């Protein structure tokens, strides 16, 4: 899925409002909460992303909230896509590999924070082990030294593989913990 919400525009808006999260981290948080609980309250999530500036209201905060609500809607729709169209909300391929890796790290931080709302003891058996492994791999992504990432072809292939692994991991967690079809959920 291609998002109509522009990554750079949302990033600049979040910075301008001194928000507590970055753009990639915001979607990661949303996905983590959705995977953990099966639902995300739109306004609560937006307030969590924006932080204290959300209380000030005003036209500029409303513009940022509109951007976040658009990302919310598109992310929700993509996770429920029967064709597995979910994509991570990260910068375009034209951005340096280091910046893209930083965004992946932030995305995973957000996901882990959101998913921490779930008690892992409620997940049993083999599924628990698979989800634990995925979560540990996400932790590993948050610990990558982005300063050591080069802009060579090998790192480009690696980042594409990492993005796909995270994307499919999120789809696996979501569909395993919430196995209701998209047509039923989005009604």
Q: How would you summarize this macromolecular structure in one to three sentences?
A:
This protein has about 190 residues and is mostly helical.
Structure explained in plain terms:
With 187 residues, the protein is an all-alpha fold. Helix content is 65%, strand content 0%. α3 (42-50) packs across α4. The mean pLDDT is 88.
The residue-averaged pLDDT reads: 88
Please tell me the CATH architecture by its name. Answer: Up-down Bundle
Structural class by sheet pairing and helices = mainly alpha
The total count of helices amounts to 8
The CATH class label is Mainly Alpha
Topology, number of strands: 0
β content, as a range? under 5%
Oligomer: single chain
What is the fold's blueprint, element by element?
Elements lengths: L6 H10 L6 H15 L4 H9 L7 H22 L17 H19 L9 H18 L10 H25 L4 H4 L2
Write out key terms for the chains shown.
mainly alpha, 8 helices, 187 residues, single chain, Four Helix Bundle (Hemerythrin (Met), subunit A)
């Amino acid at each position: 899925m291609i998002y109509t919400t522009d990554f750079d525009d949302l990033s600049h808006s979040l910075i301008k409002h001194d928000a507590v999260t970055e753009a990639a981290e915001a979607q990661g948080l949303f996905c983590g909460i959705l995977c953990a609980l099966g639902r995300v309250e739109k306004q609560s999530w937006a307030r969590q992303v924006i932080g204290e500036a959300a209380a000030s209201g005003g036209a500029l905060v409303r513009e940022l909230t509109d951007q976040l609500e658009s990302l919310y809607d598109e992310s929700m729709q993509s996770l429920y896509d029967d064709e597995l169209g979910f994509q991570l909300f990260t910068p375009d391929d034209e951005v340096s590999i280091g910046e893209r890796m930083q965004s992946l790290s932030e995305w995973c931080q957000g996901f882990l924070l959101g998913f921490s709302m779930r008690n892992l003891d409620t997940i049993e058996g083999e599924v628990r082990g698979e989800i634990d492994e995925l979560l540990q791999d996400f932790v590993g992504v948050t610990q990558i030294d982005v300063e050591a990432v080069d802009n060579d072809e090998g790192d480009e292939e690696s980042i594409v593989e990492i993005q796909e692994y995270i994307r499919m991991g999120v789809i696996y967690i979501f569909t395993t913990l919430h196995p209701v079809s998209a047509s039923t959920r989005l009604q």
